[in-house]
Amino acid sequence: MSILTQKQLGARIKNIRDSLEFSQDDVAAQLGILRQSVSQIEKGARGINSIELVKLAELFSISVDDLLKKEKAEIRETKLSNKVKKEKILLNKNKFKNALLYILEKCGGKPNLGETVLYKLLYFIDFDAYELLGNPITGMKYVKLKYGPVPKLADYSPIVEEMVKNEELVLVKQKYHDKIQKRYIALKEANIDNFSSLEMKVIDRVINSLSDMSAIQIEEYSHGDVPWKNSEDKYEIDYNAVYYRNPPYAQRDYDEIMQDADGKDASIDLAPISKEEYDYYMKLK
Q1: Which residues does 12 contact at the CB level (< 8 Å), separation at least 6?
Q2: Is 86 helix (H, G, I), strand (E, B) or coil?
Q3: What count of Cα atoms within 13 Å lies in the side-chain half-sphere of residue 159?
Q4: Same domain, yes or no, for 141 and 235?
Q5: Residue 73 lies inside a defined structural domain of this protein
Q6: Which of 62, 165, 199, 257 could lock onto 66 through a cystine, CB 3.0 to 4.6 A?
Q7: Which residue segment(s) compose the domain that 75 sits in?
Q8: Are both 136 and 230 inside the same structural domain?
Q9: pTM score, two decimals?
Q10: pLDDT tens digits, residue range 166-212?
């Protein structure tokens, strides 16, 4: 197979994009880069990495091999309404259980880790993985509520109840800053063999950077994330919105996450959960 040069690949990408009536903004959203970067790619002035190639091939509905070879690729018809490919995301119950157990192993003893913080850690683990790897780790759906993203309770609650019944974890209530805090205690170790090495790096990075935040701090932090901001109240948050993220939420520097996955925990002063938020969360169960 003859491989295209960088300039030829750029021209091929532009021709395919034009034939499918995609804009440079559509491609930028799919790849998680700026429109100007797409323009540079098409002119042959910027290279394209392996992750971007996979995402681009998915958008164009062709294989990576067909995208790279000189012979004319066979392009399946793609509807304009499907500009950014949206595959059905399925919940992996086993991965979710082990992700929950792993979080509790790593930081369950921290005084701030009640349900509010736990919900946000799970959210960022899945959404960061989707941006970096093209798929969430657990496949859990998340809903936009006033106090930030929370797992969809119709899917989340049965799993937790099953884990309690199987003595994999227990739920306890304890006093924390003059309020009753709901906490989870793991009764078994997580099986990290369920996760790839890259997935583990994403999980560890989220835990290292966010798990010291108080409920109020992580709530306010989640309010700045584009997927949450762009969703309607009480509706499911769209995973594809991660491609519109800006710093500090954007996870686009793939090399950095490989190097920084073992970074130290952030040092953040704890703050109590507000009474309004406390009353809200107590009504969820």
Answers
A1: 4, 67, 73
A2: coil
A3: 19
A4: yes
A5: yes
A6: 62
A7: 6-82
A8: yes
A9: 0.62
A10: 999 999 987 766 677 789 999 999 999 989 998 999 999 999 999 99
